[in-house]
């Protein structure tokens, strides 16, 4: 069998400190990155160059999220705020102030105008994306709520906590449903498969759990990395998903049977990240994977499914 083809398309340089977040823009060739710097950076994947500082920030950026059906970028920061900025005009539109501790994740719905923020304070807050008024807030855990995932049919919202718990809520009214199979250490990543069949959870225990969404029973568990699994993301069209880790590697897996397809790391001969890989995003402009790291670099990868040799 031919291997999945991976080639580095380029490295984007300019950040002076570790990068924690990356997000696609509304224009296909645009991405945004943020981290322990003084601004959110906009890059052009066509020219592979820096475009501009979209907006300044007063504290570290932990998460970036394009609000569904809008040109608005939500920026979650260490000071507990979320800044809403127009991604084209760079106009600041709102500052969501509620949490007293860092905001670690932000997600929005396709079917209703609501934005979810999760925080180190153990709570989540729900905001209206048209008025940016606070709608609800409630406690999920005693410590950090690190990550959020919304099911493909938008029936469920799942939260991952520092205690290693995975908590399932009804997305309609935010009522608690149940605790799902958990991790022995903090949950750091959550992702639903595009076909809606699976929920994947990753943790600081270096484990990846695969749950059936029909009942949320455990389908499979394995160890994809040596250290924390910081992100899980499915390719938009190929039967592939990627994971990134504190072990400095990017790994590509078959979404059909969870086989390991490729390892992208310096040790495997790639001109890759030399420190923790903190986040990634699949970009549809040229079907590329974009990864960000503690090494202050944004790396862009071409990923291609091999043609049949028959």
CATH-defined topology: Methylamine Dehydrogenase, Chain H
Shape: globular
Largest sheet: 4 strands, antiparallel
Q: What count of domains describes the coordinates? A: 1
- Number of E-state strands: 28
The string of secondary-structure elements, in order, is: EEEEEEEEEEEEEEEEEEEEEEEEEEEE
Alpha-beta classification: mainly beta
Specify the CATH architecture.
Answer: 7 Propeller
Beta-strand portion reads: over 45%
Number of helices: 0
CATH superfamily: YVTN repeat-like/Quinoprotein amine dehydrogenase
Strand order of the largest sheet: 1-28-27-26
The rounded distance between the terminal residues' Cα atoms is 11 Å
Q: Which class in CATH terms?
A: Mainly Beta
**What's the mean pLDDT score?**
96
Question: What is the alpha-carbon Rg in Å?
Answer: 18 Å
In the predicted model, the low-confidence regions spanning at least 5 consecutive residues are none
- Helix amount, in percent? under 10%
Describe this structure in words.
This is WD40 repeat domain-containing protein. InterPro entries: WD40/YVTN_repeat-like_dom_sf, WD40_PAC1, WD40_repeat_CS, WD40_repeat_dom_sf, WD40_rpt. Keywords: Repeat, WD repeat. It holds the Pfam family WD40. This protein is mainly beta and 310 residues long. 0% of the residues lie in helices and 54% in strands. The strands form seven sheets. The protein has a four-stranded antiparallel sheet, with no helix packed on it. The protein has a four-stranded antiparallel sheet with strand order 2-3-4-5, with no helix packed on it. The protein has a four-stranded antiparallel sheet with strand order 6-7-8-9, with no helix packed on it. A hairpin with a 4-residue loop joins strand 15 and strand 16. The mean pLDDT is 96.
């Amino acid at each position: 069998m031919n291997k999945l083809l991976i080639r580095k398309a380029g490295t984007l340089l300019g950040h002076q400190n570790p990068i924690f977040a990356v997000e696609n823009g509304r224009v296909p060739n645009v991405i945004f990155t943020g981290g322990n710097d003084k601004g959110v950076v906009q890059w052009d994947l066509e020219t592979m160059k820096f475009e501009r500082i979209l907006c300044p920030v007063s504290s570290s950026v932990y998460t970036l999220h394009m609000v569904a059906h809008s040109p608005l970028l939500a920026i979650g920061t260490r000071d507990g705020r979320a800044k809403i900025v127009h991604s084209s005009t760079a106009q600041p539109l709102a500052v969501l102030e509620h949490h007293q501790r860092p905001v670690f994740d932000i997600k929005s719905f396709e079917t209703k105008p609501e934005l979810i923020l999760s925080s180190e304070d153990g709570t989540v807050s729900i905001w209206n994306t048209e008025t940016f008024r606070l709608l609800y807030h409630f406690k999920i855990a005693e410590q950090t709520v690190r990550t959020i995932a919304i099911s493909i049919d938008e029936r469920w919202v799942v939260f991952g906590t520092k205690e290693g718990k995975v908590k399932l809520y009804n997305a309609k009214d935010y009522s608690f449903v149940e605790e799902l199979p958990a991790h022995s250490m903090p949950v750091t990543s959550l992702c639903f498969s595009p076909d809606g069949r699976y929920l994947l959870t990753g943790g600081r225990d270096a484990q990846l759990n695969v749950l059936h969404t029909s009942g949320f029973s455990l389908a499979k568990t394995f160890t994809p990395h040596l250290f924390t699994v910081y992100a899980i993301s499915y390719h938009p069209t190929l039967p592939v998903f990627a994971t990134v880790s504190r072990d400095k590697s990017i790994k590509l897996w078959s979404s059909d049977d969870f086989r390991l397809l490729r390892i992208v790391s310096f040790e495997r001969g790639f001109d890759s990240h030399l420190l923790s890989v903190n986040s990634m995003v699949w970009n549809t402009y040229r079907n590329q994977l974009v990864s960000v790291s503690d090494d202050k670099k944004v790396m862009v990868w071409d990923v291609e499914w091999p043609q049949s040799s028959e």
